Structures
1.
Amino acid sequence: MPTGLAWRPDGTLVISSLKGRVCLLRDTNGDGLEDEIKPFSDDLAAPYGVNCSGKDIDVINKYGLLRLYDSDGDGHAEKTEVLADGWGYTADYHDWAVGLPRDAQGNYYVALPCQQDERSEAAARLRGWALKLVPRTPTADDPRRFAVERFAGGLRFPMGLALNRAGDLFATDNQGNYTPFNELNQLSPGTRYGFINKLEVKPGFAPPFKPAAIEIPHPWTRSINGICFLYTPEAVQKKLGRPLFGPFEGQLVGCEYNNRALVRMSLERIGDTYQGAVYPLSRPAAEGEETFEGPVVCAVAPDGDLYIGSLRDSAWGGGQNTGSIVRLRPDGPLPPGIAEVRAARDGFSIHFTQPLERAAAADTAHYSVVSYRRIPTPAYGGADADTKAARVRSVAVSENGLSARLVLDEMRPGFVYEIRLTGLDSGGQPMFPAEAYYTLRQVPK
């Protein structure tokens, strides 16, 4: 039941499993597919993220960050060291700690799902926070190698963390009370987001919060978990002489657990504000067709393959406590579809994966644009509000047919724009994806 993916310098795949172990996966016959799995650790408390520190392995579990040592090289850790701890937890199944991206300065980042039940303040400590684990020199009084710092609060159920190449931290959050959409948040030090823990619910407590970079519609998605950026590994880029992921380079993959699917997200920065769009990445499975079990974690391997870890959990959707890892590899050209949507001062530009026939793509009848928002409340979820269909005044298509510039009658900051394309194709191939959901925070000047 994989919850974390990482690679050792020798190419060995390391996973953490919700069943309690850290395991090593190797390709023993040279066919490029791992076919051997061996436990590296003894049982841990719901590990939910892993990172390799040389030959040692760091793993985040319910009560702390651990380092596993295999000094004799027999493939099994004989020593475990607590590197950081101090947050609250109980026997509650969902009291996970999730991580572990690491920045260029060696800091780790961890997220703690919120506290919604009756418990002591000690057991609720730092729940709903993203934490920064900062390297420190151990002392006799405190042998831990990392100090725990509050980074960003007001999170409900953050299940995916990822750093971009600029060092900015992003986290998913799941729909529920105070969070009417699923979310992708850009976490900033000292900021707060919209969720309020149960022990914080007091008269007059309504702290200002930073809105999500991308609000992901629900129930189109129900539970967005692990995320990773599609960055081509340096060695692969050098070998190919180009980015591996084409127009998706630098975008994010998101793991949709309930619907057994993958989504894709693009970001743009306007001033100090991140905003962007989400799109389908995997197609819905046909009846009887094999698909993902329930994606929860993803990562780009050193050779550029995309690995997806899935599980079906008895306490999370009534599964049978099974799991699997799927390897995805680019295979031929992308189908015609939306590569990216970007905001403009009076509309949007839509970039395509393949050129479209210009006359057809310039017809406003092929575009549907609707905007709406949701209002956070203590109740679970929330309905779309202030829904309005936008009038597409004009469409200008680029000379190469790879982009279209839509001019709308108005732009509404704070709204999600649902953009759909109908009746367009490329050489008879249908568009996929033909839909995008753009969260407009700032209107470009």
2.
Amino acid sequence: SVTSAVTIAGTLGYRFRSRSGQYLNLYVGDEWHAGLAGSLALPGSQSLKHALYLELLTSTSARAPFTMKSSDSLKTPLEALLGWRGWFNEKLGFLVGIGRGLTDDGGYGREDFRVFASVMLRGTLKREKVHDRDGDGVPDSEDQCPDVPGEARLDGCPDRDHDDIPDISDKCPDEPGPATNDGCPVKKLVIYENGKLVLFGGVNFDTGKDTIKSESYPVLDEAARVLNGHPELKKVRIDGHTDSVGADEANLGLSKRRAAAVLRYLVEHKVKGDRLESTGFGETEPISDNKTALGRAKNRRVEFTVLEGGTAEARPEK
């Protein structure tokens, strides 16, 4: 695939015949065959449901490749097909088109002109039965809590304290806490120690967005207080990270927008903008296993990196 609208594909193969055939001056034996095709999504077509396509097809005798006019029995036909492919829904589609040979003379495999149409059906003929004991919409094969209803994004497990950490992995399932502390509350939300600015409280956003949840305001308020209390920190970078759910490019953009949202919040709370910068790393720097809900929660994070002014002798927060 070249872009989301243009697709290019090619094929090359060898057609073996156990017995060669001949009728009058027509000889048919082993052949090399090749094809090149491209499609273009029609304007306004979503998810490539409708597209124009062009296909070039050729085949040549393996005994005498690329014979053109020297023999009536060993032609090398070349044909172009132009068509329109569309889908009525996820399963039912159609294909219509025309074809024409491009060589000057006729021969086996070379049509002067043809019209074709077909109906396409995709999907399984029989739906496999999905087992879901707790009825939460997550199949038992993927459900980490198959006997208790939960959420798909939490691998089918419940979350009593609503801290985005499933109870099965939450060390404090009845008290909300950040993923960095395995779901338990922390006494210090932000500290500056040994030249590092560390967030122990989590910064959470609406799913797939850069909107900061109100539950994260105390963490960022404390971060602003610490930054304003340490003017020697001349430049601090806000780093955004995501889990691996979704496309790489989309996650990278989301992480950058989230880091920028944190920067704006800090500026609105009296931190000078020239002391801050932001960037995003998407899913490229995980600190935990993306295969578990707790691991994904740990990977969705905001970090502060001191670029200028931090020292190893920095005094700890009191």
3.
Amino acid sequence: FAEFFTPQCNFKGKGPERVGENSAITAYGVSDMGGNVREWCFNKTQDGRLIRGGAWDDVSYMFEDRSQRHPFDRAAGNGFRCAVYDRPELAAKSVFDLVGPAEFPDYYKVEPVPDSVFRVYKNQFSYDKRDLNARVEWRHAAKDGSVEKISFDAAYENERVVAYLGLPKNASPPYQAVIYSPGSEAAMNRSSKDLEDRVAKDFIVKNGRAFLFPIYKGTFERGNEALLEIHTGAPTYEYTDFFIKFVKDFKKCIDYLETRPDIDGDKLAFLGFSWGGLYGAIIPAVEDRLKASVLKVGGFFSRARPEVDDISYVRRVKIPTLMLSGRYDMTVPYELSAKPMFDLLGTPPALKEMKLYDTDHFIPEAEFVKETLRWLDKHLGPVK
């Protein structure tokens, strides 16, 4: 449903719009229930009050996800809608109950798999090295550099991986490179047509590094409804197969970057957002060529079979890792999901850091940019 509804809502990131300017209307004839401004609800939550629908500066899947904020939060994206109950006695009591986060296991009590088992798990993501048959489909100039659409053979079946590569103009090659693992909007969206502009304007490129945004298995044109249903994890062989392909796509991206003389293959970083941040507990554990990681609202989900479950991998992550989390996040709850991932990372304490903000599933953009660049400068070195 959200795949068709949210593109007609105001998730444009530019500010609120007048009621009725967007075409999305509910079955009850109500406009702007998704995007525009979040709407305070009656319900109390564990740490505040329920607020739903997402705002213009939220990712589109916040239309469906529950969120909470401190009741005195006065963010510009917060709003309200009045409701009249003609016959309140007919409303189910549960409608007004306290709303809590989803249930999560106690990750601190989960025993890590032994090294012998982990080696088997890690080997799932291996593949025979063959010619990539890589192509640059096109190359376009941009204000802060250039963008290339590239493609190369996947590590499975007869599929091709497509990726958008942003290259800076205010630095000298070989460039450090950041590989992106996106949020759920990439699994919900069936078109990557806007990625050229997004990559061209990304702060990573503006600040002198290359930025690679792959079209992974299950995202954009390579997605479908079946994969969307399971993309955040499922205890099934179907999800296991999907996730192994996703990680192989990531590893193939590094294979490709290593063929390019304008990329420094020794200075590669992982950047994961939300769904992509969940994989920050796994991908850096099985991909030894990464040197740093930044996870924006990432954490545990643990809805998978043990061979692809984040808890089976997190202690094997050793690279410098920065996590940026929201105190009131209900999608990736801080105490139940984000903090346990941070605590259990195998990265030495001196090389991992968590920044906690008084927000929900959202980090102020200026903070995200500042902290990410600081972390990359510290662990990859300043750009040339």
